[in-house]
Amino acid sequence: MDFEIIKLPKGKSSVLGKIVQDDLVSRQTIVVRDMVSLNMEGDDTLILIEGSSEALKKAMEIVADEGSSLTGDEKQRVYKTIMEAEDDVAEGLGLMFG
Fold first, then answer.
1. Smallest Cα–Cα separation from 16: which of 8, 5, 24?
2. What is the C-alpha to C-alpha distance for residues 44 and 11, in angstroms, rounded to an integer?
3. Which one, 32, 37, 61, 91, has the greatest CB density within 10 A?
């Protein structure tokens, strides 16, 4: 499955609303995290979208000039960080509801 990580500057949260309201994009896996919550420097919002190539292309069209797509090593590093955070959350819920 393909993925994109979009970095939205603080104050551009209305773009996130457009992403989750789009019929095609909203049917993909979407994870939203603040950089601070991932122990990263900065106050931007990171949006991980996993899904079809068409949906990822549409998401990038929606974002247009409001945000940017991560690439290369940074994209892989941030993906790994987000996935580890998601695993920690799932593990915590498993302990609570075991």
1. 8
2. 9
3. 32
Could you give the CA distance from residue 12 to residue 63 in angstroms, rounded to a whole number? 10
Confirm if 17 and 75 have CB atoms less than 8 A apart: no
Number of H helices, E strands in the chain: 4, 4
CA distances from 21 to 2, 4, 56, 94 (A): 20, 18, 14, 30
Give yes or no for residue 48 having a pLDDT over 70: yes
Structure tokens at 80: 């790994």
Contact by Cβ (8 Å): 63, 15: yes
Q: At 29, is the secondary structure helix, strand, or coil? A: strand
Q: What is the pTM of this model?
A: 0.86
